[in-house]
């Protein structure tokens, strides 16, 4: 049957199982929006295209499905750039459809024209300009396939207006055939056997887990693996929720603001097993003093991640679920060897317990002023186990990573790679759209919140009951912290001198606003927020010059961490 | 170390910018690049010359392979291969140097493809070192304009690669 380009797009979305899209209409997508009225796809109108992409991203991170966003050409498309770069850095599967001026006008500097294919090329896994409506179904099929397979990532489909209007026979391809794209899923058994040999010979093994474990939904396999060899697990910010923090083998987060014991363990390990991680500079600190005594096994689905930043003794390319399961299987055939390993690594675990006792993650409490860490602890205490937490970027993000004990995968959504302020609120919106009945909390700072605060309107319009906790210190806190520590307290442009009445701001949008200025008000405000239906903004006036500690100064080794300021 | 790499890519809109953008975005250098369709018009063959240590070269080949449009990547380093470059050289030739230019052209088995009373345009094909050598000799006569194609290479032997 003949269908127009915009109908074909929507048919394809349906066939891909898309139930919710985020977007913002405009001149070059008006046909898509017109047809959208005839399809049972929920559209959430954000107040900014950047937020639409972050919302699709939050939806994808929380659900594991491909997130979808739509924006118009020109400024609509360029507004998606930060959202795309955020998703690309954290390997989040998205399909973003942008309108484009009609093909005969492309290149003529037409009204609302931008070369979005050129602009997004380095921040997408792939992108397409559709020039012929007959290619559209195949391209949408490929876009979804590319987005969710291999190392996931965002894909842009740029759809000119005349292609949306043109019609052709519609048939959705059943299979994807791409000679240039064939991700490796199955880990090489020989490499796995070599890895097992290295593990059995180790005395001080450490598992280092990144966001890949979350993306592969490999939590069960990871726990099995860690338990089989009794190896402690340090996670990155992105890998955090994929290994329960309360697990006895958990070391929490490593890196710049990681735990003392995670960083000590990595510095002293003789075998580092990297699982879906990419040795980011915030994790390694100075490369030369990163895991200096260790042989390194690196398991990753993306070959380019391996040996990019550090030397690797044994690479294994494959899907983590598959590789870890094979590893556990091979280990189970080595009863004697494993027994010896467990005996030989006993001292190591004792040493780690000692480090945990010496320097647990802690902060100086206060009875007069609200400590931000205290708010995080209370949020954890009072929220449900499967609550989804998003953050913006900065001090509050690190405190959430440090003091919120995540126990379930896909419950911690944060911009790890790009570090995008303004991510948390729209991401929470997307996560709430994916899971209307779960608790969704956006932990925010007063700086980050103002980067996408317009999304309060979206929350209220769609009755998305996101709870927002702003840790308000009237500073761009993380930059202020660096200025205090490394720039002689010269607070250049980091003081947000205008005090915002966040409660009134929430109320202006029709949301509920609550505020706490004293420690004894914190619990009451959180309880009230959680009991109140609909979106609620909580403002906590926190200690203004609190620092995120411990800290490895930029360029220093993990063993040179500063424990308190 | 210098590496010559062939990349077979989908002959599609924007593919060259994906390859060149990858190099500029990740700080890899390109010394030369040439590209044209293969016998199969849906595939283009890019030959590029780059420099870097082993770790950088491993990243370059991995990153090239990662591009969705890349079908095959061949790094010829350590392999036996034939390398040829074409250059067109417009060299000034006043009365006293005309004979000398022709002698040099003859020695290098190059060809004169255009001639005027005050210039010769010389075509030369060969390994880049041979092109460099003739340029060194012609330079004193005054080179008015030069274009080099950048090298293209094929592996030696009977084995070939013609499709995906």
Describe this structure in words.
The complex is a heterodimer of chains A (565) and B (164). In chain A, helix 18 links the parallel strand 15 and strand 16. Chain A contains 24 helices and 20 strands. Chain A is an alpha/beta fold and 565 residues long. In chain A, the strands form four sheets. A six-stranded parallel β-sheet of chain A has the order 3-2-4-5-7-6, with helices on both faces. In chain A, strands 11-10-9-12-13-14 form a six-stranded parallel β-sheet, with helices on both faces. Helices cover 39% and strands 16% of the residues of chain A. By secondary structure, chain B is of the alpha+beta class. Chain B has helices at 15-25, 54-66, 98-107, 128-138; strands spanning 2-10, 32-37, 43-51, 70-75, 81-92, 111-116, 119-126, 143-148, 152-155. The longest helix of chain B has 13 residues, at 54-66. Chain B is elongated, with a radius of gyration of 19 Å. The mean pLDDT of chain B is 94. The chains are: A alpha/beta (565), B alpha+beta (164). The A-B interface holds A 117-118, 121-122, 125-126, 129, 131, 146, 178-181, 302-304, 307-308 and B 9-10, 13-14, 17-18, 21, 25, 55, 58-59, 62-63, 65-71, 164.
Number of strands of chain A: 20
**Order of strands in the sheet with the most strands of chain A?**
3-2-4-5-7-6
Largest interface: A-B, 18 and 21 residues
Taking the sheet with the most strands of chain A, its summary is: 6 strands, parallel
Taking pLDDT < 50 over at least 5 consecutive residues as the criterion, the unreliable ranges of chain A are: none
Helical content band of chain A: 25-40%
Tally the helices of chain B: what do you get?
4
- Rg on CA atoms of chain B, Å: 19 Å
Query: What distance separates the N and C termini of chain B?
Result: 29 Å
Helical percentage of chain B:
25-40%
Rg over CA atoms of chain A: 24 Å
Low-pLDDT runs of 5+ residues of chain B are: none
User: What's the oligomerization state?
Assistant: heterodimer
Taken from the alpha-carbon principal axes, the silhouette of chain A is globular
- Total strand count of chain B, please? 9
Helix and strand element order of chain B: EHEEHEEHEEHEE
How far the N terminus sits from the C terminus of chain A, by CA atoms, comes to 69 Å
